[in-house]
From TrEMBL:
<protein>
    <submittedName>
        <fullName>Methylisocitrate lyase</fullName>
    </submittedName>
</protein>
<dbReference type="InterPro" id="IPR039556">
    <property type="entry name" value="ICL/PEPM"/>
</dbReference>
<dbReference type="InterPro" id="IPR040442">
    <property type="entry name" value="Pyrv_kinase-like_dom_sf"/>
</dbReference>
<keyword id="KW-0456">Lyase</keyword>
<dbReference type="InterPro" id="IPR015813">
    <property type="entry name" value="Pyrv/PenolPyrv_kinase-like_dom"/>
</dbReference>
<dbReference type="InterPro" id="IPR018523">
    <property type="entry name" value="Isocitrate_lyase_ph_CS"/>
</dbReference>
<dbReference type="Pfam" id="PF13714">
    <property type="entry name" value="PEP_mutase"/>
</dbReference>
<dbReference type="GO" id="GO:0016833">
    <property type="term" value="F:oxo-acid-lyase activity"/>
</dbReference>
Amino acid sequence: MPHPAALLRARLARPEILVVPGGGSPLELKLIEGAGFEAGYVSGYAAAAARHGVPDIGLVAYAEQAELVRATRQVTDIPLIVDCDTGYGDVANVARTVRGMEALGVAAVQIEDQAWPKKCGHMDGKIVESEDVALRKLDAALAARRADTVVIARTDARGPHGLEAALSRCRKFRAAGADVLFVDGPESAEELRIIGRELDGPLMVNMSESGKTPLFPAAELEAMGFSIVIFPSSTVRITVRQVSAFLADLKTGGDSRPWMDRMASLSETNAALGLPEIKAFEATILEGRKS
């Protein structure tokens, strides 16, 4: 089977936009694969929420994200784009992050230019590193690669310094060798169009519902010039809303039956978790021992 990075690069060579849902748990990524998506996004926001129950404000470190990726790779085959925040430090940390993620078989690593502790890209009060620091960390990521891992260079400069500063950084990221550019937090449709027009692709865009960036369907984002659209935290937000509603009803009535049509059956859940495939594998081994 081709390396996940090769699969992702081949997919990015096609003209149609790549729609990539995100998650913060192996179950979410497994469901994304089961739904037929061509890649999954291991979201820093969703990982903080689903794996650790905390907000995305720099509380999750490299080892915790690596353990999530390791668990996810054991139950998925699709290429994974992994949000590696700031690389978890300076040059040496970034190199360790890239090589560690490569060893886990990821397709792409995303490194941003925020100062630590970083924040979700759609929160206020972000601080970005100087261009020199951002560029040396990108150089480290590119130099550390031992495989053809895709390096996504993200800037959060739009919030504190404006769109032109973000564009300027991305041009320098491209000149340094970044494979994909990602301006997070544009605040209007016109800003999205400017990014798509002014920067060379491939470009990634973030559809974070109720965040700073207006929402558009994938087809319109493709027309604007974007190659990848991520939906990083949609699944965890649905979990928060729907599970909270179920628990409120259960607390009031002590009865789960009103929710039966809104939850997967036991057999559906087992199927989503791969139980039929495991049982088939077991049967093959046991039959082979008998012959």
